[in-house]
Description:
alpha+beta
Amino acid sequence: xxxxxxxxxxxxxxxxxxxxxxxxxxxxxxxxxxxxxxxxxxxxxxxxxxxxxxxxxxxxxxxxxxxxxxxxxxxxxxxxxxxxxxxxxxxxxxxxxxxxxxxxxxxxxxxxxxxxxxxxxxxxxxxxxxxxxxxxxxxxxxxxxxx
Length: 147
């Protein structure tokens, strides 16, 4: 059963920054999908006045075997049905639920940008955002109670 205190609506997704850096010395090296180091970071801002959440997601790609570096940052907006006063609950909802909603948009953006640069599409790995949250917040118990 869903917790009505955490009920929210996905409002918007936008790319706010993109940087693609091509190493011309390695341009012929990416002819098939190779391991690329991917770093994902999250940041959120919750506005109690208007009961909305902004989630920023940044993906950085680079690797010894790839001819490029890529940095993409997006912002997404979510509105909540009820006021949330527990900031730990806000962080958990933002970094698990909201992040899981926008990650496919980032995967698509990365694959498309790399393909348009003339390389095979690069697909980011699937993510378990519950485990990702636990790795970012070790020892923090999940918020189960009402907000």
